[in-house]
Specification:
Distance between the termini: 30 Å
Bound molecules: adenosine-5'-triphosphate
Number of helices: 9
Helix content: 25-40%
CATH class: Alpha Beta
Largest sheet: 6 strands, mixed
Order of helices and strands: EEEHEEHEHHHEHEHEEHH
Structural class: alpha/beta
Oligomer: single chain
CATH topology: Rossmann fold
Strand order of the largest sheet: 6-7-8-3-9-10
């Protein structure tokens, strides 16, 4: 599994994460929930190795990767789709997707590319378009497709539905669930708490950088605090 143990992290000044521990198992969607500023993206960045943490450890399948760089973690099977997507807008969809496998051999790249096109049947007809000309939902598929090119065993999706039309929100979350069914461990950061928990297996709720609740997705979805604060009082 992808495991964070007592992460302490921040930017300048006081830490924003206080001993956050989570475990993402292969084949499951693990929902990381919480209000704006609770520390969800910071946790994601620490797991992916793009932010150094001051305390705690990160393990990938029981290997301690705490000191490993982001590239080394990709090689170990951990890929991050950041909140801002970071596509190259002037480049084509094909080039953006292929970039996700720049360290791999030509044959591995071809195999991954075919798999990504199968996972996102919407992408093949968009391959020659510039990324900046796509809708938000299409861009999100390109961003996830690019991450899948590295053939990750663990995929971190930081607010994949942010700014998307409702029709795409369901599509993206169903695709996340589909990846988990294929054996990928998906860490899903999501503001659509009800929809995330509907596809999730386990969940953690962060509050001001601390784990406030942890449990199975059904337990979290029926927890009175979650119902009141995130689900509009409707369980
Ligand atoms: P959101 O849903 O708004 O993205 P979040 O739960 O992902 O929220 P983080 O982005 O992890 O929260 O932010 C946690 C805290 O760290 C916040 O107080 C935020 O202002 C602060 N923070 C985030 N990024 C930086 C940064 N680059 N420099 C300084 N402080 C930051």
């Amino acid at each position: 599994m992808l495991r964070a143990e007592k992460l302490v992290a921040g930017y300048v000044g006081a830490p924003v994460l206080h001993e956050v521990s989570i475990e993402v198992r292969p084949g499951e969607v693990f929902c990381l929930l919480g209000a704006n500023g609770a520390g969800k993206s910071t946790t994601a960045k620490c797991l992916a190795g793009v932010l150094r943490h001051a305390g705690g450890r990160v393990f990938v399948d029981d290997v301690d990767v705490t000191q490993a760089t982001a590239n080394e973690r990709v090689a170990r099977g951990v890929s991050l789709v950041p909140e801002a997507r970071h596509l190259f807008g002037r480049s084509t969809v094909r080039d953006n997707v292929i970039l996700g496998a720049w360290t791999r051999s030509r044959s591995e790249r071809a195999a991954s590319f075919d798999r990504v096109m199968e996972t996102f049947p919407q992408l093949p007809r968009l391959l020659k378009r510039r990324a900046r000309d796509l809708s938000g939902g299409e861009q999100q598929m390109v961003a996830i497709g690019r991450a899948l090119m590295a053939n990750p065993r663990y995929l971190i999706l930081d607010e994949p539905s942010l700014g998307l039309a409702p029709i795409y929100v369901d599509t993206i979350l169903q695709q996340a669930a589909g990846l988990a069914r294929q054996g990928v461990g998906v860490l899903l950061i999501e503001q659509n708490v009800g929809k995330a928990l509907a596809v999730g297996h386990h969940a953690v709720v962060l509050e001001t950088g601390r784990v406030a609740l942890t449990g199975t997705a059904p337990e979290i979805a029926t927890n009175p605090l979650v119902v009141d604060s995130y689900l509009g009082g409707i369980a």
